[in-house]
Write a structure and sequence with these properties.
- The chain is α/β, with parallel strands linked by helices and 318 residues long.
- It folds into 2 domains: 216 residues, DHBP synthase (Alpha-Beta Complex), CATH 3.90.870; 88 residues, Rossmann fold.
- 32% of the residues lie in helices and 19% in strands.
- Helix 1 packs across helix 6.
- The radius of gyration is 19 Å and the shape is globular.
- The two termini are 33 Å apart.
- Bound molecules: threonylcarbamoyladenylate and magnesium ion (MG).
- The site of threonylcarbamoyladenylate has 29 residues, from strand 5, strand 6, strand 9 and strand 10.
Length: 318
């Protein structure tokens, strides 16, 4: 049985005991363990059914701690850390020899971030080690943005979810690495590409095929509901072909009623992409419990967080 609790001391005890705890962050809940405990890290891979070739993100409470874990901190990485930490940016940097291979899947780089959530920052401060934490969902499924989502996924396999409320950003961190000293985008996320470019200038964007081996979060099918999901330009036109089906629709801001659909979810009536991003996964989780024949989402605007939303929706439809 899983306990959902705000008791940070209890989480500390479990983590010191080489076991795992689900933790809140401002992006999504993570499944956390001591980066130096083989037992805890194996358990994370096992209960997520995550392939061992897919490396984990290391969570720290300060820039100084991050510096200890890497062998090189390029100036542009430092600028990004200063601009966005604590926050939803993960930096992939050359690792220090002390980072276990299990964390990095044998790579010579490590992914690090300082999450912006008071509960988890306090937890990290009370531990003598950083936490590895992938999103707390079975491999390929929708990431959790509430403690109850984690509970539903893992009620028989983890002993505690540290309660931290609803994740306010609601999609995963943006991942930036460096190749030949040049910044490269590995995963779109909670910080828009435009905001990154404002700080460090041009960023190389690899096409999906190039990215896949480096960041398996970029696998084509990922973040997927069980219900068949479609991403379309014109929802009205698309659903005309499915008159007798039970359909759930996700739209950005258009509140126009669609009488033939079972449920219409508008992610931001005021047209705010940040609000829409924060509601995306909880809406998918909810629609996925309604025994619909299909989920139909409209394509979001192709800028700012709209790009990140489209990225996740397109992977949910594969
Ligand atoms: O917002 C987030 O980043 C959440 C919260 C819990 O912090 N975590 C998260 O972890 O999304 P996960 O494991 O679901 O996704 C981590 C991604 C994977 O796609 C992984 O391949 C990539 O980070 N990654 C980790 N280490 C890497 C490395 N050394 N080089 C390239 N990609 C890496
Ligand atoms: Mg994930």
């Amino acid at each position: 049985m899983t306990i959902v609790s705000k008791d940070i001391n209890k989480a500390v005890t479990i983590l010191n005991n080489e076991d795992v705890v689900a933790i809140p962050t401002e992006t999504v809940y993570g499944l956390a363990g001591n980066i130096y405990s083989e037992k805890a890290i194996h358990k994370i891979f096992e209960i997520k059914q995550r392939p061992l070739f897919n490396p984990l993100i290391v969570h720290v409470h300060s820039l100084e701690k991050a510096e200890e874990l890497v062998s090189d901190f390029p100036e542009k990485a430092r600028q990004l850390a200063r601009a966005f930490w604590p926050g939803s940016l993960t930096l992939v940097l050359k690792k220090s020899p002390s980072i276990p291979d299990l964390i990095t899947a044998g790579k010579d780089t490590v992914a690090i971030r300082m999450p912006n959530h008071p509960v988890t920052l306090q937890l990290l401060q009370e531990l003598s080690f950083p936490l590895a934490a992938p999103s707390a969902n079975p491999f390929g499924c929708i990431s959790p943005t509430k403690a109850s989502h984690v509970e539903r996924y893992f009620k028989n396999s983890i002993s505690m979810v540290l309660e931290g409320g609803t994740c306010k950003n609601g999609i995963e961190s943006t991942i930036i690495g460096f190749e030949d000293n040049e910044p490269v985008l590995y995963r779109l996320g909670s910080i828009s590409l435009e905001d990154i470019i404002d700080v460090i200038g041009t960023v190389k964007i690899k096409n999906k095929k190039d990215i896949a081996p480096d960041a398996p979060g970029m696998l084509e099918r990922h973040y997927a509901p069980k219900t068949k999901t479609y991403l379309v330009e014109d929802v009205e036109l698309f659903i005309q072909e499915y008159k007798n089906k039970k359909i759930g629709v996700i739209r950005f801001s258009e509140p126009k009623p669609l009488p033939s659909v079972e449920i219409l979810e508008v992610l931001s009536k005021s047209g705010d992409l940040k609000e829409a991003a924060s509601k995306l996964y909880s809406t998918l989780h909810n629609l996925d419990t309604l025994h619909l024949d299909m989920i139909v989402a409209e394509v979001f605007p192709d800028y700012g967080l709209g790009k990140s939303i489209n990225d996740r929706l397109s992977r949910a439809t594969k």
